[in-house]
Write a structure and sequence with these properties.
MetI-like fold; 316 residues; mainly alpha; 14 helices
């Protein structure tokens, strides 16, 4: 409408219809991921109420009776379970170590790659660094067993030849934690560096040229141009990592753990597998999963709030 309250003749009639006629293909493409989210992410949330009910295989989730203590029976049982408390502690400790050592690794690697002059060598290094990401944890465990086994592992055999005592990489709790974290960093740092390399590629090259004119060396360019340029990306990924501080994948701890290190290797994912799938305690493990999701959401919101208070954009 113009100032006189009349319809602007320059505006096309049927704006929304014209827009949809032009871009309907994009919305059709968007339909598939939306259906995936609806079917596999949102509809299954109906079954979260199992955490508050007595599970019965012969009843629908709506017909199951409410658990004792106003539905919080299985939450109370979980926190009275010594194995769950141990798994909760291990999950938090292992994820914090992953964050401390694993989060900076791809940033440092991306910064180093960005400084390499020879493109062919750079591509070779990138390819080698990406490869572990495509290996399953079963394969990685097999490699670790061949390298770090107490008596037959290659590393300990070499140490034995040198007169050095064998290191219990896989069967002593402290060494197991170090091996667990190191293997995680090794598998993921190359692949995760792709995001930072893409962010670095988006930095205006004129900034580097101006810094060169002013006599800045490579380290100063990295510190004053590259790192500030990728800081928003670092903050977003840090928030997402903090949001998963109490979450953990199943395959990595399950593949690497053994009875000798069970006290430090049992995490929430393996606890749920052993007690829920193998032990058929569905209400208990659903309560554990519900608690885990709520805590992860809390950390995500907290990290996003702190980032916005510090002047960063956050993730919303």
């Amino acid at each position: 409408m113009n100032k006189n309250g009349m319809r602007d003749p320059k505006k096309k009639k049927g704006g929304f219809a014209v827009y949809m006629k032009r871009y309907w293909q994009l919305y059709v493409l968007l339909l598939l991921p939306l259906l995936y989210l609806l079917i596999f992410k949102y509809i299954p949330m109906i079954y979260m109420q199992i955490a508050f009910k007595k599970y019965s295989i012969v009843q629908s989730v709506w017909e199951m009776p409410l658990a004792a203590n106003h539905g919080f029976e299985y939450f109370i049982k979980a926190f009275q379970n010594r194995d769950f408390i141990n798994a909760l502690r291990n999950t938090l400790v292992l994820n914090l170590l992953d964050l401390i050592f694993g989060f900076p690794a791809p940033i440092i690697f991306a910064l180093i790659l960005n400084e390499l002059v020879f493109r062919r060598f750079k591509r070779v290094v990138q390819t080698i660094a990406y490869m572990p990401h495509f290996l399953s944890w079963i394969i990685i465990y097999g490699l670790a067993l061949q390298l770090f086994a107490p008596t037959t592992g290659l590393v300990n055999m070499v140490l034995g030849k040198l007169g050095i005592e064998a290191i219990p990489f896989l069967n002593e709790p402290g060494h197991w934690v170090a091996t667990y974290v190191s293997l995680g960093v090794w598998q993921n740092f190359g692949w995760n560096s792709i995001i930072y390399l893409a962010a670095i590629a988006g930095i205006n090259s004129e900034l580097y040229e101006a810094a060169s004119v002013d006599g800045a060396g490579r380290f100063k360019k990295m510190w004053h141009i590259t790192l500030p340029g990728i800081r928003p990306t670092i903050v977003v990924l840090l928030i997402m990592n903090l949001g998963n501080i109490l979450g953990s994948g199943f395959d990595r701890p399950f593949a690497l753990q053994n009875n000798l290190v069970k006290n430090v290797a049992e995490v929430i994912a393996t606890f749920v597998y052993k007690n829920g799938i193998k032990g058929l305690q569905f209400s208990l493990t659903t309560a554990v999963g519900f608690f885990q999701s709520v805590i992860c959401l809390f950390f995500l919101l907290l990290a996003n709030w702190i980032s916005r208070k510090l002047g960063e954009r956050g993730i919303w």
